[in-house]
Design a protein that fits this description.
single chain; Rossmann fold; 10 helices; 43% helix
Length: 211
């Protein structure tokens, strides 16, 4: 039976950055989004509150072209396409699950992910308010993993998780194999393996080598 590889995006596939940071950089809002990120990390903002504050920053200004530029210019790990190609060549599956906006996360489908699931933020250009029920949480990542297991005829025992921070803790606790990628203490103590670097192929090799 194959495996289901579950990848976080912010801080994991994106080295030292996040979708909101990269998008805000396109608008010259580095300082403002950094302040929101600090509030979120400190637990002062819930995921829906963070999403609404970010949308307030971007409203009426953000364009699809700027989202595309943020995506293309982001500090992605090397080897993402190659890892996903190898996973699919083995008859296995790969999915990205992120709290970040779906309109950013879903662009990873073009890189070879079977599934790319993000939070449901308002469409660009942003004219609507955030719906809290569309914003993912750490617990929601586990629910999506279970949903994908049903879709592919797998179980949690067949899952491998890759992540870096507190939003990955629930998933790391739910699956048997996990890789902490450039991670903080929230997940490093839960992970089966740890990787620090800029190449996803090296993190993936920890899973392949250990079966």
């Amino acid at each position: 039976m194959g495996k289901l590889h579950l990848f976080d995006m912010d801080g994991t596939l994106l080295h030292g950055s996040a979708a909101a940071l990269e998008i805000s950089r396109q608008l010259g809002l580095d300082r403002e989004i950094a302040e929101l990120e600090r509030g979120f990390a400190a637990g002062e903002l819930t995921p829906p509150q963070f999403a609404q504050r970010a949308c307030d920053l971007w409203a009426a200004e953000l364009t699809e072209a700027q989202v595309a530029a943020a995506f293309e210019g982001a500090p992605w790990l090397a080897g993402i396409r190659e890892v996903w190609a190898d996973i699919r060549a083995r008859g296995e599956r790969c999915a990205v699950i992120s709290l970040s906006p779906g309109f950013f996360v879903e662009r990873l489908l073009d890189w070879g992910a079977d599934v790319a699931r993000g939070s449901r933020w308002p469409a660009v250009p942003i004219r609507e308010r955030v719906r809290p029920d569309g914003i993912l949480s750490a617990a929601a990542k586990v629910g999506i993993a279970d949903e994908l297991c049903v879709r592919y005829g797998l179980t949690r025992a067949d899952c491998v998780a890759y992540g870096d921070s507190m939003s990955d803790t629930a998933l790391f606790a739910a699956v048997p194999v996990s890789v902490a990628v450039n991670a903080d203490h929230h997940v490093s103590e839960l992970a089966s393996a740890a990787y620090a670097g800029r190449d996803l192929r090296e993190a993936y090799e920890l899973v392949v080598t250990n079966g």
